[in-house]
Amino acid sequence: METTIDRRDDQELARVAHMHFVQRLDQKEIAHLIHASRSTVSRMIKEAMNRGLVEISVRFPVHRRMDWEQQLAAHLGLSQVVVVEGDARSAPNVRDALGRIGAGLVADSLPNPGTLGVCWGRSIGHVVDHLFNPTQSTLSVIQMIGSMRISDDASNGVELARKASNKLGAKLELLSAPLMLDSVAAAESLRQQSAVSHVLERSAQADVALVGLGALAPESSALVGAGYITQKDTAQLAGLGAVGDVAGIFIDEQGVPVSTEFSSRVIGVDIEKLKNIPQTISIAYGASKIKIINAAAQSGYITTLLTDSATAQALLPSVSSAHKENPPT
């Protein structure tokens, strides 16, 4: 009998596993449906798991700090803030919750027809993973920033745009350009190409945008990790007043773009035009991103922030005091 189970194809095993784990049928009910014994069904389920056809995940409940959100939104000058209890850097369930909430905000905000702009970054990936199109709206997805030189489905703009398009059943408009060119002259020349300029213009007309905020700290900077800038470069940028980047463009504490060759070599949406997009959503958390969150929010580059309680406490001292007096239940 075991030999018979071993010879069953993946499709048949997956069908039985789906009945058991998704449709919630017990082994007796499945046995009746497929005309087999309960012991055979049990072995088929076990074999499906052994072959990696079944993935089991446990989503621990998270607590949303709605009591802090309005305070933080007023402090940062944002239309909306979402705060999930915990530390997203070390808790996957917190990152997952932020992504799910972000995807819900996208669904609620996109008109029909509508356009979603996608930048890059792992935090944006949390939202993209959970995107959905409940009303089957006519949508477009636009890649707002050039592609990284290394392939990373979790953070690369082109891969995130493709995934978002698939999730939403949307038309896809890709930016056929790298994230950063070798020289300012090369970047200026590429921006003038019609295929590139058209997508950049369309990016600025998005109805909703997922915007990445990058830390300047070398150990946290995605640009350092991808090899676009060095640790020495980050020190130079800090000396010029930079606190991080918005969609690859470095800004200072007042939100003013820092005049630097690095930003001039980036191919992406004009961040000043982000201010004209009705809904610009960012997921950002961690001590290294406090300054860039403050700068981007108070300068109007983002309208909506999703973060964790650890970061919220650092952003707003009164929230930190409230946390000590009224710990979450």
TL;DR of this structure?
With 329 residues, this protein is of the alpha/beta class. The protein is built from 16 helices and ten strands.
Question: What keywords describe this structure?
Answer:
three-stranded antiparallel beta sheet, Rossmann fold, 13% strand, Arc Repressor Mutant, subunit A, single chain, alpha/beta, WH-like_DNA-bd_sf, Sugar-bd_dom_put, 2 domains, 329 residues, DNA binding
Question: What features would you describe in this structure?
Answer:
- This protein is α/β, with parallel strands linked by helices.
- The chain folds into two domains: 8-51, Arc Repressor Mutant, subunit A (Orthogonal Bundle); 66-315, 3-Layer(aba) Sandwich (Rossmann fold), CATH 3.40.50.1360.
- Helices cover 45% and strands 13% of the residues.
- It has 16 helices and ten strands.
- The chain has helices spanning 2-7, 10-21, 27-34, 38-50, 66-76, 92-109, 122-128, 157-168, 184-191, 194-203, 222-225, 231-239, 261-264, 290-298, 309-315, 317-325; strands spanning 80-84, 114-118, 139-143, 171-173, 208-210, 213-215, 242-246, 249-252, 279-283, 304-308.
- The strands form two sheets. It has a seven-stranded parallel sheet, with helices on both faces.
- Strand 9, helix 14 and strand 10 form a beta-alpha-beta unit.
- Helix 15 (309-315) crosses helix 16 (317-325).
- The model has no long low-confidence stretch (mean pLDDT 89).
- It comes from Pontimonas salivibrio.
- One of its GO terms (molecular function) is DNA binding.
- Residues 63-316 form the Sugar-binding domain.
